[in-house]
Amino acid sequence: MPSPSHNTKRCFPVKWEQPDKKLINDWYHKYVVTGVLESDDTGGSKTQQTHYTYVGNAAWRYAEDDGMTKDRWRTWSQWRGYSKVRAVLGDGEDGPQTRTETTYARGLDGNYQGKGNPRDSVTVNDSKNLLGGITDRDQFAGVVLESRTFNGAFSDDAEISASVAMPRWDKTISRTFHDTNSDDDITVDGGRVLTQWSKGRSRKADGTDFTTQITTDYDDLGRTIAVDNEGDTTTSADDTCERTVYPSGTPPAGANLTLPIRTLSVSVDCDNAASNEPNLVAGDMISDTKMLYDGKAYGAYPTTGDLTSAEKVTGVSGGRSTMATDVTSTYDGYGRVLTTTQVGDTNTTNDDRTTTTVYTNAPEGWLKSSTLTSPPERCPRLCQRQPRRPTHRSSRPLTLPSALPSKRHRSPAGISFRRGSSIPSDLLSGRFSGL
Ligand SMILES: [Ca+2]
Ligand SMILES: [Ca+2]
Ligand SMILES: [Ca+2]
């Protein structure tokens, strides 16, 4: 049998108790999937085959952190799998097989080796050393570090494309407990695993690689605050930067910390000063949206989290976005939208367009019906032709399919609706008359 603390086999140590309370050190076996067949029972298509091979040695880690196992049961029984798993899709008879190879972190660094023994020191890397050899920390177990696709053979020459992701560990808490089994102190960390950057490459016809890169910044709470998308790494012309802003300052009790108050997207690298206020450039602007919640001013922490107003960018002045209210909404106590108003031009009066929904509940409490009233069409002729408000017996608004060929769709009754606008249910049911 292998050494339990450095076990590279698929058998693993298990402790179990006899009726007389005697503890038995035993070995069980781990089984892995070597193939999956997906058969089409109704359509008659050929069975799809995927075969898996596992490269290198298996690995196991000491059960130090599961929070459930009592000390006397602990051993090296946590399955950490294989570093590389290869998948071959297809049988090769009716087309080329697809070959992929995935490299995983397994969380083997610091694996406990028994009292007084130094813990393991383990690093992992991708095939091109883009990661530079990172610590295979416990929390990275199962994280995909590299994914490669091949044509014909698992070799560098046959690589078609690949992606590599650098994991990042943010520790937020730790706990040390005394393991009475080993009479040793064991520290367990808690926190979150994030992706610091990802790089992609795909093989061009001339044999060189087209490379891309995305870097992500996070705040202290692990929220994404900037996505620096370099796109093609050989040119800055396609770079974009997306920033997400959250309320600042001490949050009040019950504050919702997940809702952003602003998303800014510009066509310049995040490392460029022009990617943020007060250095914005009009020509770089892609979009800028501010979100206001619960009827409060911009920047206030959401509590209920009802999006009551959204502002859109109208231009850039002095390096800052100029904003105008785009949409306002009201809600009932259940968080259902009562009114949505598309705010019109600031220089035009009476051009706001409000959609209203009235909900009718059954005495038992469930939603019985809802009535959605759309704003009148802008065309004066159609304004006159909207004879009554549309009513339907569903909690979901009826909309025209968005795949209509043109922006306006002329119905057989001679009425046109904008794509995505609501349809009177009378028209859908054929009961529309009087025009
Ligand atoms: Ca670029
Ligand atoms: Ca950058
Ligand atoms: Ca107006």
Task: Describe what this molecule looks like in 3D.
The N and C termini lie far apart (about 85 Å). The strands form 5 sheets. This protein has a 17-stranded antiparallel sheet, with no helix packed on it. Strands 1-2 form a two-stranded antiparallel sheet. About 15% of the residues are buried. The chain folds into 3 domains: about 1-165, no CATH class; about 205-330, no CATH class; about 345-435, no CATH class. It is globular. The protein is built from 2 helices and 25 strands. The chain is mainly β. The protein binds calcium ion (3 copies). One calcium ion binds near residues 230 and 238.
Brief summary:
The chain has 2 helices and 25 strands. By secondary structure, the chain is an all-beta fold. It folds into 3 domains: 1-166, no CATH class; 204-331, no CATH class; 344-435, no CATH class.
Q: What small ligands are held by the chains? A: calcium ion
- Helicity range of the residues? under 10%
> What is the H-and-E element order?
EEEEEEEEEEEEEEEEEEEEEEEHEEH
Rg from C-alpha positions? 30 Å
In percent terms, what proportion of residues is strand? 35-45%
